[in-house]
Give the backbone structure.
Amino acid sequence: MPAPAIKICGISTPGALEAAIRARAAYVGLNFFPKSPRFVSPRQAAELSKRAEGRVRRVGLFVDADDDALAQFIAATQLDGLQLHGSESPERTAQVRARFGLPVWKALSVASADDVAHAHAYAGAADLILFDAKTPKGALPGGMGLSFDWSLVAQRKGAVAWGLAGGLTPENVAEAVALTGAPLVDTSSGVESAPGIKDEGKIAAFCAAVQRA
């Protein structure tokens, strides 16, 4: 079985971007949620995007953004995909996909089997479902280092492609891949030295662990 694709999310500096590319990540995430410590402005995103072009795919992370906000960042950044990480319904997800003509990933917060089952509602609306850990009410929707019971998605087969996120680190990602068979893994806080500060050594270690899994 091929190694999972890797996404390093919350990239905000050239150094972190270059570290992800050196480590052979398939995707980097640019966070456009203003409340996040990983937020990047349109100008920052444009600079990072230009550096990344043709070297790694760029996914923009949005949380319940309206069309104007989406259009602003997409125009500035030349994204390869959109990640909707809020409470976007299947209908809203399909609307975004149709309007902007880009692949759409929908993050789903998981605490139970019912949360995983909800992925079926996004068939035909999302190109990929990203199963992430449910965070406490009032907290950020991701990037908090929380994980969920991986057995809930073990060896999952479904109508929509999927990936695994939530609390993945260089130390536990191989175990997560072995248990779940995830075709894609996504990390943000798991490769940081502080919230929003990527650690280039941890990025390298994370990607190496996935590639050996």
